Amino acid sequence: MSLQLDFRIHRASFELNVQLQLPNKGVTVLFGRSGSGKTTLLRCIAGLEYQADGKLRFNNQIWQKKTFCLPVHQRPLGYVFQEASLFPHLNVLKNMQFGWQRVHENKRSVQFEEVVQLLGLGTLLNRYPSQLSGGQRQRVALGCALLTSPELLLMDEPMASLDSTSKADILPFLEMLKERLQLPVIYVTHSMDEVTRLADHLVYLQNGEVLAQGPLQQMLTDPDLPFISTGQASTVLQAQLKSSAITEDYLAELTVEGQRLFISQQDIPRNHLPRNKQLQTNTHLADTKPSGDAGSPIRVRVMARDVVLATSPPQQISLLNCLQVRVMDIRDDNNPSQSLVRLALGQQIMLARISRRSITRLGLKPDQQVYALIKGIALN
Amino acid sequence: MSLQLDFRIHRASFELNVQLQLPNKGVTVLFGRSGSGKTTLLRCIAGLEYQADGKLRFNNQIWQKKTFCLPVHQRPLGYVFQEASLFPHLNVLKNMQFGWQRVHENKRSVQFEEVVQLLGLGTLLNRYPSQLSGGQRQRVALGCALLTSPELLLMDEPMASLDSTSKADILPFLEMLKERLQLPVIYVTHSMDEVTRLADHLVYLQNGEVLAQGPLQQMLTDPDLPFISTGQASTVLQAQLKSSAITEDYLAELTVEGQRLFISQQDIPRNHLPRNKQLQTNTHLADTKPSGDAGSPIRVRVMARDVVLATSPPQQISLLNCLQVRVMDIRDDNNPSQSLVRLALGQQIMLARISRRSITRLGLKPDQQVYALIKGIALN
Amino acid sequence: AKELHVAVATNFLGTMQQLAQNYQKSTGHQLLISSGSTGALYAQISNGAPFDLFFAADNQRPEKLEQQGLILTGSRFTYAQGVLVLWSSEDNLVDAKGEVLRHGQYEYLSIANPDNAPYGFAARQVLEVKGVWQTLEQQQRLIRASNIGQTYSQVASGAAAMGFIALAQARLEKKGSRWIPDASSYSPIMQQAVVLKTSSDPQLAQHFVSWLQQPSARRIIKNAGYYMPDVY
Amino acid sequence: MWSLTPADLSALWITVKLAVISTLLLILLCAPLAWWLAHSKSRARVIIEALVALPLVLPPTVMGFYLLLLLGPKGAVGGFLEQLGVGHLAFSFSGLVIGSMLFSLPFVVQPLQNAFSEAGGRVLEVAATLRASPWDSFIHVVLPLSRRGFITAGVLSFAHSLGEFGMILMIGGNIPGRTQVASIAIYNYVEAMDYQGAHQLSSILVLSSFTLLICIFALNRQAKVTQIH
Amino acid sequence: MWSLTPADLSALWITVKLAVISTLLLILLCAPLAWWLAHSKSRARVIIEALVALPLVLPPTVMGFYLLLLLGPKGAVGGFLEQLGVGHLAFSFSGLVIGSMLFSLPFVVQPLQNAFSEAGGRVLEVAATLRASPWDSFIHVVLPLSRRGFITAGVLSFAHSLGEFGMILMIGGNIPGRTQVASIAIYNYVEAMDYQGAHQLSSILVLSSFTLLICIFALNRQAKVTQIH
Ligand SMILES: Nc1ncnc2c1ncn2[C@@H]1O[C@H](COP(=O)(O)OP(=O)(O)OP(=O)(O)O)[C@@H](O)[C@H]1O
Ligand SMILES: Nc1ncnc2c1ncn2[C@@H]1O[C@H](COP(=O)(O)OP(=O)(O)OP(=O)(O)O)[C@@H](O)[C@H]1O
Ligand SMILES: [Mg+2]
Ligand SMILES: [Mg+2]
Question: Which positions fall inside the Mop domain (chains A, B) (predicted)?
Fold first, then answer.
């Protein structure tokens, strides 16, 4: 736990009061409704909220305490603002060089060309911000922040106005960065997809206070939190990837609590590939079979709506994955026609959202042993 | 077809060249990668691109031709800009009143309080824009545009930075507005979820040109377009809602091409409810059973990844919906471990994405009769 | 009672105000006084300024107006003759013979601009007689104010050690030391006045002019520090 | 303690009248010009911008002299007006106003132009989509957003009109009760060596301007704070 | 065609030197003040803002007189400098520069203050997160974004320094070759009824300023076009 913070802000009709200890690597996602204080908290961490009263310690370095506040520009962080903010008098190239040039060569941990290429900015370098589209501006702002080789990355909805192709290009890069640089990231997003894909740690803010926080898995299945009742309710399972598990048909075999699971090779996180391949995104992996070792841990996401329950293992059906699980409990869902079934898979918990009618028809009860069928592609 | 447009713009490294005829009701979604010209096209329609050379006719009224250009403020349109833009010198209330006061009372088709309440702005009315969070600003901007009671609504990613709860509140309101006001809407979004939920018509832009356009259903299943290869690939089915179809367990029964389908009552679009209920969002429908008539048409969305194929109807499984379909063709997916199966369901087409291994195991072939299993909750 | 509009060179303004008071007392007529530099007033008159009378600080401008036919024929007359004085605000700086100009330890000497102010021209003549003009000019110690009013300000503020001003000004100062050069060392400073052709009431203007010839009026002018040959 | 002569009072009154009238007129007339300068893409713009600054380059008396030539009965403008029966403008309060306006022109145009340049762009587009005509937008969006520019323009022009005297003396003719303003009165006091009178009138001018300016800036600041710009 | 006397030439040269030096110095010194005024939340701000505009209120000659009292050998400042062995400032070029600066103060501070107010906020926050120290941000972000304000300040101050003569005459003493500037020379021509000489020198001043201003505004415009502000 190496980002320790404790902030209080009083505003006319809003009060922030947050104490947190965040891990010094991995992605912490700040989640919460509009106006819950996510941006304000990021600004406090960056040192931009002068009225903030509090303490902040990063990796044994004190950034703020009662009588002291490390100036923003001396904090080794990168900040992607919610509204992409570029220097209007500089073109894209100079905007990106701004932070890059202010970091000592020895301290640079990313490559300029790498970032430019990955964010697809090669053809825009001579443009001025006023000549860019919304998404282009957002990508440039992302580039500017990354190019300062930060030790802590703060990102406020960095992909809100990006198309899915751009997102699909950038997300793996962020995952890679996070692994390679061992860089703690604090990430604000409203997209459950980004949460399940990126988050290690989740902080749920409500009206300026931390309602709950914890590791992703635990938070997603906590019945008291709203995650389980969204349409996007998901669980994340810890699995092991076998090195020899690559099949002819581009599937990879995993083990979860002793049971087999197949996922698409493409969904295997990049960091399980040899280092020199890490930057090749969007290329098919067929030619470069991953060399993850037998037990290399990997996490897979299972959306509650993708889980089908059966009382006997079905045949002749296009569902690859069939896990034996035990029904823990069955709860009402927000949607009255649905129920939320929590399933025990060894030590782990999985969610399934199925219709009440199916519950009745199958006669599901707590403690019953059932088969959870998951579509292979639902994992990532 | 009552929005006819024909625009050309030359810029240093971008060229827009668009001819379109759009329906005069329903939602047309502009889709395309970052920088493809979506915002530029909206600005042309609004009359904000002075360099634009072209023609524009809206409902037999000429807005622009060679020698004439109707000034922006005389066009009865509402525009939600990509970057929420409010007047910094006015508080939220006065911002919202700005357009409202400039529309004649007789021409007002929405209610001030209604919009304020729905967008959750009640407590923010006295704030200035600089005191709002990103999502709050976006909601105010949305309100400002709606309050001009437009005859044509242009929206540029109006929900990009909204949390899912706000979205879930606002989307039904937009659906209702679109039905009630018979208001044509041109909507830019990167979210497939919003596309399938709102769009009637889809325009796919690439490098400033219309790559394809047409009704939603047709566009989504077109093998030449990128929609089928995204993770979000979906089809939209035309179904009929039976008035007597409301069951005890909050499901509604639909008919698709003569076959039965169950969906959650909650997913029934609001416009199928009695008018006085239209504004009650997020309330359970149990108490207000929808009164749609026997054959009232309704559309349901099926994501390709939610479809499971079986060669015999499975038993003892929590899948409510089982449709008899015919395999049309099987194509490679972007993901090498997956295949995309196009299924004929009567006159309609449905997509299923399943693993290659399942194709082999089940021995699927074109023209084969199979069972398509869809999770009830996957419909909306 | 009627009104007469009089344009006066700034250095005669104070005296004119005194005269105006007396004139009003004795005749009931009022004087409306506009002041300015002689050059500016001349430019205004050539461009139709609504004055009846013009009291210049020199004879050059009135002559010019006469040549241009802008005045009532024969109305030009000398109303006062200026007396030049070297003045310093320091008590013992200026000696009775003006030798300080030659030997004194002073930094700056202020005079009115010799090119357009009669007092300046006279000062230059005095300096030339003393033989210091060239030196002062070369050493850039000569301040050229726009008129003697400014010269006075510069000396009074102590910025310039001394300066050539009108006796009319120096009289008002109790402090300081002064030297009045011999009247023969410079050409007489004839302050002339004219009645303008555009005058709306030439008769009243003439009346005022003749009133000025009266001893009481002349005494006022003399007491103000001007040389009035007839009174002596 | 202070003993102002009636002439002083009348000079003060004319001064205030002159400063107020010329500042208001100037702002009214210059706003469109500044708007055009801020938004025009015409090449002529640069020339007009340069012309606007020119009145500053010449010494005020000399400018006054040239204005006299122009506005006097023999001048092009004055003569024309004379023929119309309006009367030429030299030595009248109207002439004073014109001179004063000409002389404060750059102080009004430049700040307004800068303010208008900033207050353009996106907000105007938003206003147009919210049905505001260009004129409506100008009044309800541009003007409030350019407040700072207007204050700067007003303050500079007002203060400058108070202190200007070279040109005013030349074109106004320093006629008591009509065109004699406070600055000329002070000048006269100094010239007449009545330093007491000069100090007194100067103090009044400076102190009242100071008070006025403080009020203006304080109000401006308050407006800014409530808006949290 | 034109026949300038050596005195005219030297006056022109001193004029240019004075305008350039005082404008540059003024901008250098006023930038921090304007920055403080734009961003301070102190109550003293309003008072300083009002003080800055005050030099305009008094007639230049009178201001010059008061300055003379201050800077002359008997004045507080002049006397002090005298004791230091620097010499008092009256009738020297340095005194001229000081007077000219004081008189153009409001034209420099106000536009800069407005520009700095606009160029604050978000971009400064971005710059700080990109490791720019406040000073670094000021140089590389605020200055370029305030270009318009600097141009306005420079142009107004430069033009005003060219034309100002009342105060300069008083405090500079019109010493040929040292403190006689073109505006005084023109004034003298007018006073001496040498209208030919006045026209000639005026034309030179006006035309060369006009050319200079056109160049400045054209360059500014070009910079703006490439940036598409
Ligand atoms: N400058 C300010 N002055 C007063 N209140 C403010 C200010 N900035 C933000 N607020 C308020 O503080 C609260 C928290 O704002 P914040 O921007 O942190 O929200 P957020 O969680 O980032 O929301 P969003 O998802 O909409 O961006 C909001 O209610 C907002 O209205
Ligand atoms: N003012 C401008 N001058 C020159 N080029 C511009 C200008 N505005 C936009 N462009 C370019 O025109 C193209 C289309 O821009 P547009 O804003 O329409 O894209 P978009 O489809 O809305 O993208 P996004 O999803 O990122 O908002 C982009 O390549 C952009 O860089
Ligand atoms: Mg936010
Ligand atoms: Mg866009």
Answer: 316-380
Place of tokens 């207007």: D150
Helix extents (H) in A102-222? 112-118, 134-146, 164-180, 192-198, 216-221
Beta bridge partners of E165: none
Residue B203 Cβ < 6 Å to ligand 2: no
pLDDT, tens digit, for every residue of B218-273? 888 887 887 877 777 888 888 887 765 566 777 888 888 888 888 877 766 555 54
Distance A171 CA to ligand 4 centre (A): 20
DSSP B168-187: HHHHHHHHHHHHHTT--EEE
| 64-83 in chain B: CB under 8 A from chain A | 82-83
Q: What type of residue is D12?
A: L
**Cβ atoms < 10 Å from Cβ of D227:** 17
- Option in A71, A87, A131 nearest E141 (CB): A87
Relative to beta strand B3-11, strand A338-345 is unpaired
**Per-residue tokens: C202:** 């030439």
CB-based burial of residue B158 (10 Å sphere; 0-12 exposed, 13-18 middle, 19+ buried)? buried
Distances (CA, A) of D136 to A316, B141, D117: 70, 20, 18
The answer, for B320 touching chain A at a CB cutoff of 8 Å, is yes
Using only C-alpha atoms, chain D has a radius of gyration, in whole angstroms, of 20
Count of CB contacts below 8 A, A vs E?
71
Nearest CA to ligand 1 atom 8: B131
Position E227 scores a pLDDT of 59
* Chain B positions in Cβ-Cβ contact with residue A354 (cut-off 8 Å): 318, 375, 377
A40 lines ligand 1 (CB under 6 A): yes
What residue owns the CA closest to ligand 2's atom 1? Answer: A131
Looking at 3.40.50.970, 3.20.20.70, 2.60.40.60, 3.40.50.300, the CATH number of the domain B3-215 comes to: 3.40.50.300
- The domain defined by B234-379 folds into OB fold (Dihydrolipoamide Acetyltransferase, E2P) (2.40.50)
Domain residue spans of chain A: 3-215, 234-379
| Interchain pair D59, E187: CB under 8 A | yes
* Pairing outcome for strands C162-166 and C109-112: parallel
Euclidean distance between CA atoms D174 and D187, whole angstroms: 11
Which D residues, 86 through 125, put their C-beta within 8 Å of a C-beta on chain E? Answer: 106-107, 110-111, 114-115, 117-118
What pLDDT score does A140 carry? Answer: 92
Q: Do D136 and B102 touch (CB under 8 A)?
A: yes
**Binary contact (D192, C50; C-beta < 8 A):** no
DSSP state of C227: B
Give how far C47 is from chain D: nearest CA, Å: 6
Using one digit for the tens of pLDDT, what is the confidence trace for B6-63? 999 998 888 999 999 888 888 899 988 888 999 999 999 999 988 878 888 888 888 9
Its pTM stands at 0.86
Contact A187, A216 (CB under 8 A): no
C21 pairs with which residues across the strands?
Answer: none
Here the tokens at position E169 are 């005459």
Domains of chain E (ranges; CATH) run: 12-228 (1.10.3720.10)
Cβ atoms of A55 and A20 closer than 8 Å = no
All residue ranges of chain B with pLDDT < 70 are 1, 243-247, 267-295, 376-380
Q: How many CB atoms neighbour CB B111 within 10 A?
A: 13
Q: Which residues of chain E have pLDDT under 70?
A: 1-2, 224-229
Q: Do C39 and E193 touch (CB under 8 A)?
A: yes
Share of chain A above pLDDT 90, in %: 26
Alpha-carbon Rg for chain E, nearest whole angstrom, is 20
CA-nearest residue of chain A to E122?
A85
Nearest CA in chain C to D66: C43
CB spacing of D46 vs E221 below 8 angstroms: yes
